[in-house]
Amino acid sequence: MEEKTAFVKKEDQCPGNVYLVGYRCTGKTTTGRVLAHLLSRPFVDADEEFFLRTGTTIAKMVEGQGWAAFRQKEKEILADLARTPGLVVSPGGGAVLDPDNRAVMKKTGLVVWLTADPATIRKRLGLDEKTEDQRPSLTGALSAADEIEAVLAERLPLYRDAAHHELDSDAFSPEQTAARVARWVEEKGCKP
Length: 192
Hints:
With 192 residues, this protein is of the alpha/beta class.
């Protein structure tokens, strides 16, 4: 199966980081760990970094302070990570909602959008033990299937805007996905 290299934005440079963006459970963390190993770089999962810095889960912050407070903290963490070149970063799935986040990722690294079929996302969400604490409902009222469809429809143009490349994580194993991204990093000349 062929990779879905949808686009490369020629005007963008890559001073150092690699960002794997995409909806929940599209393989950002799993692929990111493999990629970091291949590139001999540190890996940072922004959701895990959130917990380390705040001492609370995303679900608890959202419940107590709302989505806006979480998104502000997420933005601060991503901006801080962007100032540290040489990382492989897995931002939260909604990080692309903020235009400043999209801009900082494009400015400081190579951005790869990992996609997956909604049925695959639903299956992976059900199997992931982090879902309850780290992935609160985004809509509050929709079924899981309807929420995935609705949120993906809203975010697709934002992922596309943020990304230099697109890769279908259904089509490849995490190792194969990471190898393709590593090739793009080498071609783009991303130095830590």
